[in-house]
Amino acid sequence: MTPPNPFKKAFYTNSSLQVLFAVVAAVVLGYLRPATAMAMKPLGDAFIRLITMILTLVIFCTVVTGIAGMEDLKKVGRVGGKALLYFEFVSTLALFIGLVVGNVVRPGSGFNINAATLDAKAVAEYAGQAKAQTASEFLLHIVPNTVVDAFSKGDILQVLLVSVLFGFALSVAGPRCKPLLDFLNMLTEVVFGIVTILMRLAPFGAFGALAFTIGKYGIASLGPLVRLLGTFYATAILFVFLVLGVIARMAGFGILRFLAYIKEEILLVLAVSSSEPAMPTLMAKLEKLGCSKGLVGLVVPTGYTFNTDGTSMYMTMAALFVAQATNTPLTLTQELTIFAVAVLTSKGASGVQGAAFIALVATMTVIPTIPVAGMALILGIDRFLSMARAAVNMIGNGVATVVVSRWEKEVSAETLKQNLA
User: Fold this and answer.
1) Please, which pLDDT band fits residue 238 given cuts at 50, 70 and 90?
2) Separation CA 405–CA 299 (nearest Å)
3) Residues 367-414: pLDDT tens digits?
4) Which of 162, 288, 322, 337 is 20 to 30 A from 196 in CA distance terms?
5) Range of the structural domain that residue 87 is part of
6) pLDDT for 280-290, tens place per residue?
7) Does 268 have pLDDT greater than 50?
């Protein structure tokens, strides 16, 4: 009897290999046949919409069953408080790193571009959407007009608020609502079953999204702005291995093993330039790692809004790039103003494509001397920058969840090592 071929088996069962193959095929097609590659866009769009379709249900079921299953309701507030403190510290550090690197490397120097020659119309659409929210407006936005409205819009924070309230109410009601809790537990299994089915389409979604990107913008379009791309990607990689690596080590696990553990999610996020499609499987993997369902349900969705490490680095670095490229000198006060405003505008610019670009336009409007039209310089390569932004955002939220779980003593360092191995 002929023994099975291990390579053939690995290809058909290993989703990371399938996605990697799709990424390579997309780059080749985009380079050789740009027009055909651009026609692949519906594959990527359809996959992202399929995941977005089920995302609110994933969050609702996970959070409600997690909170209702917690014996100590004080833990919910404690976990949320610790997570928010962690988010603010790390994302603010990322903003500062972007500011420092932008000043030291100066990726925009040498362009000497006259702002009057730039295509302001290209940025007009984003400028119209950009609006720096006040703190009160941001908090008010978290509250939906109706429960149904939160789910129909797919707003993660609004769905999270409804889910937390529902979970608290179920927990307080006690045994009387146990049949409803049992139903929601069964619904959770069904929802994650749907996610498993949809993730089989991930290679096609990754292929369509990346093929369109390469076909439309072309590898050659990276040339003039290779310094910005190189600087940002290098900073992102160093941030993951040094900053997040040190945080992971302090929490008792290695960043390399963690990255290997979520490699499928990283490849998918890089291909589709959005971190949201990877959220359901990331949450499932974190639970398998030993983090409780309630903690994962609270920290991951909240982190997608408040813990935007990649976006934070991008915003300060890109703002300095535009100022340098258009020969706009900035004082220390102006740079610190950009930094302060970006602390607020970077929130909520995670999973959706283009959201970080809109947030950057909103940030730059506080310094009138920087021509907003200068954003047209990086508009063409923003999709490539978005790949790194989304990947760092997703990795950062994964690390944050494990760290908070360690603080809560839910999982030991030994258990983490065994599961990551």
Assistant:
1) very high
2) 10
3) 777 777 777 777 777 778 888 998 999 999 999 999 999 999 888 888
4) 162
5) 14-420
6) 899 999 999 98
7) yes
Q: What is the mean pLDDT of the chain?
A: 82
Write the single-letter amino acid at 238.
L
> Mean pLDDT lowest for which of 58-72, 350-364, 392-406?
350-364
What gap in Å lies between CA 310 and CA 260, rounded to an integer? 19
The type of residue at 194 is I
Residues near 242 by Cβ (< 8 Å), separated by ≥ 6?
A: none
Residue 7 lies in a domain: no
Q: Residue 241: pLDDT above 90?
A: yes
At 89-99, the pLDDT tens digits run 999 999 999 99
Residues 183, 166: Cα–Cα separation, whole Å: 14
In a domain, 8, yes or no: no
pTM of the model: 0.82
Evaluate whether 383 touches 349 at the Cβ level (below 8 Å).
no
List the one residue out of 170, 182, 404, 160 whose CA is nearest residue 292.
Answer: 404
Query: Hey, what are 160's tokens?
Result: 């999270």
Q: How far apart are CA 356 and CA 345, in angstroms?
A: 9
Question: For 231, what's the count of Cα atoms within 13 Å in the CB-facing half-sphere?
Answer: 24
Tokens 């959407």 locate to 129
Single-letter amino acid code for the residue at 109: S
- What is the rounded CA–CA span in Å between residue 156 and residue 303? 10
- Which token pair is 254? 């290695």
- Residue of 367, 385, 352 whose CA lies nearest to 319: 367
43 Cβ contact partners less than 8 Å away, ≥ 6 residues apart? 204, 205, 207, 208, 209, 211
**What does residue 273 show for φ and ψ, rounded to 5 degrees?**
60, 30
Q: What CATH number should be reported for the domain holding residue 368?
A: 1.10.3860.10
Size (the chain), residues? 421
Tell whether 232 is covered by a domain.
yes
CA torsion 264→159→355→298, rounded to 10°? Answer: -50
Q: Report yes or no on 163 lying in a domain.
A: yes
Q: What is the pLDDT of residues 167-199, one digit of tens each?
A: 888 888 878 888 888 898 899 889 888 988 888
Q: Three-state SS for 134?
A: coil
* Terminal Cα-to-Cα distance of the chain (whole angstroms): 33
- How many angstroms separate the Cα of 137 from the Cα of each of 82, 85, 304? 24, 21, 19
Identify residue 306 by its one-letter amino acid code: F
